[in-house]
Specification:
446 residues, alpha/beta, Rossmann fold, 3 domains, 6-stranded parallel β-sheet, 17 helices, NAD binding
Amino acid sequence: MKIVIVGSGYVGLVTGACFSEVGIDVTCVDIDRNKIDNLNKGIIPIYEPGLEDMITRNMKKGRLSFTTNIAEALKDSEVLFISVGTPPDEDGSADLKYVLAVARDCGKHMNDYLLVVTKSTVPVGTSIKVKQALQEELDKRNIDIEFDVASNPEFLKEGAAIDDFLKPDRIVVGIESERAEDLMKSLYKPFTLNGHPVIFMDIISAEMTKYAANSMLATKISFINDIANLCEIVGADINKVRKGIGSDSRIGHKFLYAGIGYGGSCFPKDVQALIKTASEFNYELRVLKAVEAVNKDQKLILFNKITNYFKGAIKGKTIALWGLSFKPQTDDMREAPSLDVVKNLLEAGAIVKAYDPIAINEAKHHFGDTILYYEDQYETLIDADCLAILTEWPEFKIPNFKIVRKLLNTPAIFDGRNIYDREEMKENGFDYFCIGIDTSKNNVKS
C-alpha cells in the first residue's frame, strides 16, 4: 500500500515513520522546502525519542521519502493523511486554512480514487468542509473522481509517541463508506494483531472524541491542582490525597499529579476550541471554562511563592530554573508554564538563569537574550538566590543536594512538580516549597 502524509511536523513525522516501519510505502509532503531538504539529509526538526533512528532506517530501505510535490506523491496512492497545523485564532477557534488548502490540492491533482483522512485535530464538522473544498476543485476540472473522507484523530503523548503509535490503547476512525472502512482496516492491521482495537464510528463522533479526550485529561489536571491549592490552605498533603483517590478504579492515578499547570500543543488549544465550538451552537461548556481558568492561575503559583518568600523584593534577585519544556522528553515549549514564570520574573526585575536538557535552542526563540542559558544544571546555581523546578526531567530527581546547597546564595527550592520529599529537603537544610503541601512550618527559614 502507498500512502501520502501532508505535513511534516510532530504528528506527520511520527505517523509517517511508524507506518513505514511496518512496511507501508510512505511519502511525506510539506510546503516548507528547507524542512524537506533537511529531512532528506537526515536532519529532524523535532525531538522525540526513537524518531530519528526510525526515520533514518526507513529512508535507507526506501519506504519513507520526503517531497514538496504533492502531485507526484499522489500517483498510485490510495490514502492521504492531512497532518498540518490547526493553530488557534484569537477567539480560540481552530484555524482550518492549512487543512482546507490540502483538501484543495487533492482536488487539483488527484486522478484516481482517494481516501482523504484528517489526522490533524480539527473541530466538529471539518470533514464537511474538507469534502466541499475537494469537490469544488474537481468541479473546476470538470472531472468526476470518486473519493471518501475520514477522521483518524491522533492520541500521541509527546515523549512517548512512537510507543503510543505502535502499541495504541485504541484507534479511532470516523468513516462514511464501506470502502473507506476496508482501507483503514487494511492500513491498521499490523497494529491490531496484538488486540489493540480499532473503533469505527461516524466522522462527527470521531472528531468530537479527540476533543473530548483531551478536555477530560485537562480537567483531571486542573481538578487536582485546584484540590492541591486547597490542601495547602487547610493543611492536607496532596500527595496523600492523590494516592487515596487514585486508588479508586473509577478515578485512577493518571493525570492526577499536582503541579504548575498543563501546556503543550494540544490541551490548551483543544480546550479552547471545544469551548468555541459549543458557543457556536449557543451552548456553554461551564466545566471546561473553569478548567481553563484554573490552569491559567496555576501557572502563576510558583512565581507567587518565590515573591512571597523574598517578601516582594525580587528585583535584582537571581533565579535558577531547571526545565523549560512543557513536559520531559520533548523540546516543545508551546504554552509551557515556563513562559509565564519567566515573563513574570523578568517583569519583576529578576535575573533568570536556565537549564534544560533538550529545549535550550527552542527557549532562545522565545526569550532571546533576556535570560542566561547554561549547558550544566549545577552551573545555573552559582550565585543564584533560589532554584525553581519547572519540568520533571529524570536527571533533576536525585541531584547532589550538597552541591546544590553549597552553590545557592539562599537555601531555597521551589518545586513546581513535587519531585522531592519535604522531610529530605528539611534534613538537607533547604527552605522547600512545592504544590499542595503547607511546607512553611518545616522550613529552615520562613
